[in-house]
Amino acid sequence: xxxxxxxxxxxxxxxxxxxxxxxxxxxxxxxxxxxxxxxxxxxxxxxxxxxxxxxxxxxxxxxxxxxxxxxxxxxxxxxxxxxxxxxxxxxxxxxxxx
Length: 98
What we know:
Elements: H1 3-6, E1 13-16, H2 18-22, H3 24-34, E2 38-42, E3 45-50, H4 53-77, H5 85-95
């Protein structure tokens, strides 16, 4: 199971996929107001997940940061070079043109 799904707080909203067609406005309202996914089932089995664009973008951002940190940890395992906070901040400012 994805770590993100493990972090979903409260009770999961699970509904039949037919609700997407029959109650789209209600499902849309739920995902926007709660920033939580609605899990849709087909024949009693998980089929799709509905999530607001904002919540999806936040999830993507968190995932990107996680994988970049993982990449940095792996790189650190293969080199002895370490950077001070001043060196890192200088490199970041140069990267954004500051």
